[in-house]
Amino acid sequence: MKRLIVFISVLTMLLTACGSAETKISADKAKEIALNHAGVLKEDATFLRTERDSENGKAVYEVEFYSKDKKEYGYEIDANTGEIIKWEID
Fold first, then answer.
1. Boundaries of every domain in the chain
2. Whole-number mean pLDDT of the chain?
């Protein structure tokens, strides 16, 4: 019985990982969306991180960067639609 539970748990994790790995936009596209929204040119940005994550069961990209004028931008972008879910400027 324990083996069956372990097998089902591992299988569930693998299927979840495989299913969540597919997105309609790339990390580079998410960066482009954030930069366009911020009005910052790519050459004027220093990216701190771009990570794929899950928010309320939805695949998202978290994008953070600094602009040339030292403003910090943070974006959460839907990894399938490219919609900006959240954004902030510090």
1. 24-89
2. 84
